[in-house]
Amino acid sequence: MIAEVGDRPQILCAALAIRYGRAMPVIWGLGLATLLNCLISAIAGSAVNQWISEDPVQLFYALSLIFAGIGMVAWRRPVALLEKWTLGPFWTSFLGLFILQFGDKGQFILAATAARTDSWAFAAAGGWIGVMAACVPAVIFQERLARMLPIKTIRHVGGGIFLLIGVIIALDAWGIF
Fold first, then answer.
1. CA atoms 121, 112, 2, 94: torsion sign
2. Most exposed residue of 2, 22, 121, 175, measured as fewest CB within 10 angstroms of its CB?
3. What pLDDT score does 1 carry?
4. Which DSSP letter does residue 88 get?
């Protein structure tokens, strides 16, 4: 959840809610897009678990956290607000968020988490709940959320925590820590 604060999916959710003036179709599109992305990530991570041993899986997890941390503190591209899309609130939300989340840092963290466990379904459920917990308030509160939360601070502190944990796990995978 912390990785999504101030991130592109959260921003797009708020923008679509403002554009359409209706929260529920945006939330349903977000929910379905996120569910599909979480299932893809968790199943892919589960497959990785079957192919490689524990140390490379641990290193994969560490790298996903390190890159997520870098992504949280680094400059980000502006979000395309899909203004020319005329598919309606549900389909614009579903397709736009599915494409936006595909290959995002959250998807790699989820795949790496699923690779570390025998229960890909729990990893998928946890990822889905986390993204929904971060993005649904953006749909409901829209631009007020940015005023209510210290987003820049959350991103920097969260990114630093991800970097620290990722480095510790990587050192452990290499047998250094």
1. negative
2. 175
3. 60
4. -
- Residues 45-74: tens digit of each pLDDT: 998 877 888 888 899 999 999 999 998 888
pLDDT tens profile 10-28: 889 999 999 999 899 999 9
CB contact set of 83 (below 8 Å; sequence gap of 6+): 19
Q: Is 174 helix (H, G, I), strand (E, B) or coil?
A: coil
Cα–Cα distances in Å, from 85 out to 63, 136, 166, 168? Answer: 35, 21, 38, 44
Residue 129 has pLDDT above 80, yes or no: yes
Q: φ, ψ for residue 47 (rounded to 5)?
A: -65, -40
Give the burial class of 153: count Cβ atoms within 10 A of its Cβ; 0-12 exposed, 13-18 middle, 19 or more buried.
exposed
E-assigned strands of the chain?
Answer: none
Alpha carbon distance 156, 149 (integer Å): 13
Query: What is the Cα–Cα distance from 5 to 91, expressed in whole angstroms?
Result: 23
158 backbone dihedrals φ, ψ, rounded to 5°: -60, -45
What pLDDT score does 61 carry? 93
